[in-house]
Design a protein that fits this description.
TIM Barrel, nine-stranded mixed sheet, elongated, seven-stranded parallel sheet, Lyase, Ornithine Decarboxylase, Chain A, domain 1
């Protein structure tokens, strides 16, 4: 099959890519910005009257913050969460509305306070030393420093402990010089709706609330917002769900897929019984086996744990909606796929193999290599060409 008419899985965007994928592109990641914007609107409507922010850290979950943030702005988002100061600077430059809010989850690193302030970012304060350093930058009590407080309600990662909260409550020198715009926490087990820790953390958060300044409250991210209105509070902070992720077992988040990924077939080979393929000869053919060699590997973000040895099952790719197993070791640049059983659907040199799409979800890839879809999404390599469909405003424009 020629490269100008690539084999397609039903319902993919490949049929819209003529002229947008470079001829020398070995792989392509397709990002549907209109679906991204639609997902934010769907979550906004689901949690109303609570507000809906957007988490755009890690380069917009690996999809390109320079495209993701403007699309979310066009959809109506005006509150963004990033992890680092560098991400905050980028987000601030991309957000057209000067009144939009950019929170920095890493908070105030020692000596970074002035740079945070100059960037127009709001740190999420997680410790007493951070609070004191941030407050010290206030010119006076009449010009307090805007921040958010992160309460540790039981995740035991970042967050102000109950002891630190009590200390702050009695430290008027510090509290008079900060303006707390948000009080937030983070759930440890939101991906398990029945886990008792969810209600425990909500109870702890509520118990500590009277000791904290009066401000909007937030505890739910992508999974937490699906736990129901009790967890919506004043603001939810979806990240993975915005990008089409479905990480919550048994509950379908009302979002659509945003990402598809494909890689070219470079060669078709035939193995005789007893021949191996790939490093360490971990897979040995027990029959005449047709193998497609595909231009993707762990250098492109496909974990080595997608590899399958003889008698094992691991990851898959798809051709024309039909799955084919990855066999042998995933290497830096290549995977090898058993296409023997794809009668009538067998690919040829130059065809596209679906890595993520309608037939193989982010969750499928994550489960196949013992991780989660979040990791798969954020590891997609820039070595793959990027094609963006739409603009977040429903115009249907596209470009690379």
């Amino acid at each position: 099959m020629s490269t100008t008419a690539p084999q397609q899985s039903p319902g993919t965007h490949l049929d819209r890519l003529d002229g947008f994928v470079p001829a020398d592109a070995a792989g392509v990641v397709i990002v549907d910005l209109d679906a991204l914007a639609g997902n934010w609107r769907a979550l906004r409507d689901l949690v109303a009257p609570a507000a809906c922010a957007a988490v755009v850290k890690a380069n917009g979950y690996g999809l390109g913050a320079d495209r993701v943030i403007p699309a979310l702005c066009a959809a109506g988002a005006d509150t963004f969460f990033v992890a680092t100061l560098a991400e905050a600077r980028q987000a601030r430059a991309l957000v057209a509305d000067a009144t939009a809010t950019v929170y920095v989850l890493d908070g105030v690193l020692p000596g970074s306070g002035q740079a945070l302030h100059d960037a127009g970012a709001i740190p999420v304060i997680s410790s007493l030393p951070e609070a004191k350093e941030w407050a010290a930058l206030a010119p006076s009590r009449n010009e307090p420093m805007a921040c958010a407080f992160h309460v540790d309600s039981g995740l035991n990662r970042l967050g102000l402990s109950a002891r630190e909260i009590r200390a702050l409550a009695s430290d008027m020198h510090t509290m008079d010089r900060v303006q707390v715009r948000l009080v937030m926490s983070h759930l440890a087990c939101a991906d398990d709706p029945g886990h008792e820790k969810n209600t425990q953390q909500l109870d702890v958060f509520r118990t500590l609330q009277p000791l904290l300044p009066s401000a909007p409250l937030s505890i739910a991210a992508s999974d937490g917002l699906m736990l129901g209105p009790d967890y919506h509070l004043d603001l939810v902070r979806p990240g993975y769900a915005l990008y089409g992720g479905q990480a919550l077992p048994g509950r379908i988040t009302p979002v659509k897929p945003v990402v598809e990924a494909y890689a070219r077939v470079l060669q078709i080979r035939e193995l005789a019984p007893g021949q191996s393929v790939g490093y360490s000869a971990s897979f040995v053919a027990n029959r005449i086996t047709r193998v497609a060699v595909i231009a993707a590997g762990y250098g492109d973000g496909l974990p080595r744990h997608l590899s399958a040895a003889t008698g094992q099952t691991a990851g898959h790719v798809a051709f024309g909606g039909r799955r084919a197993p990855i066999v042998g070791r995933v290497s830096m640049d290549l995977i090898t796929v058993d296409i023997t059983d794809l009668e009538g659907h067998a690919p040829d040199r130059g065809d596209w193999a679906e890595l993520i799409g309608q037939s193989i979800s982010l969750e499928d890839v994550g489960a196949a290599c013992g991780t989660i879809g979040y990791e798969i999404l954020t590891r997609l390599s820039p070595r793959f060409a990027r094609v963006y469909l739409g603009g977040g405003d429903g115009t249907g424009t596209q470009g690379t």
